[in-house]
Description:
This protein is an alpha+beta fold. It has 2 domains: 18-78, lambda repressor-like DNA-binding domains (434 Repressor (Amino-terminal Domain), Orthogonal Bundle), CATH 1.10.260.40; 91-196, Umud Fragment, subunit A.
Amino acid sequence: xxxxxxxxxxxINPNQGGKAAIxxxxxxxxxxxxxxxxxxxxxxxxxxxxxxxxxxxxxxWIIQCALETGVSLNWLTTGQGLxxxxxxxxxxxxxxxxxxxxxxxxxxxxxxxxSFLPTNLSSPIVVRDGRTTYICDQKFxxxxxxxxxxxxxGTYSVRLITRLPKGMIKISTAENSFECAFSDIEVIACxxxxxxxH
Length: 198
């Protein structure tokens, strides 16, 4: 007879179950490789490979995945039950991109709790740049002062735009700034929210 006070108690051995759990993380995020998972978690390939080979249980990554995707914590931990929790709040899946050598590269998708997203998004996407995650809206009526996803001569980046007279704009980063004609750039999307992981 169990003496546990918790009817749903789960015994977790930190030194086993890691391989299967990491495979479930790859599936939950919609990736096809463990390398993509390592990139998303911002850990080195060797760190992930070490946990995988040693079968070390990735409790920290599982918690992060459950929060980001809404996938059932029980399923991520044990592989049992429903993948999507019935208690999960309304979620929205957004196409995800990352910057690679100045290019925007498709990088799977990301599922958010709808309450986390900015209101009145019309055509949202997620863009990751290192530790920074941007939620962007590709539909906008006017380019006002603020942060935008832009294309300059085939190079994509997020920059601060300030409108100037006579069709000119000032484009700024934390390091530098310059002025050019508005027609010299292509505006891709408005930055609606920015999250930086530490």
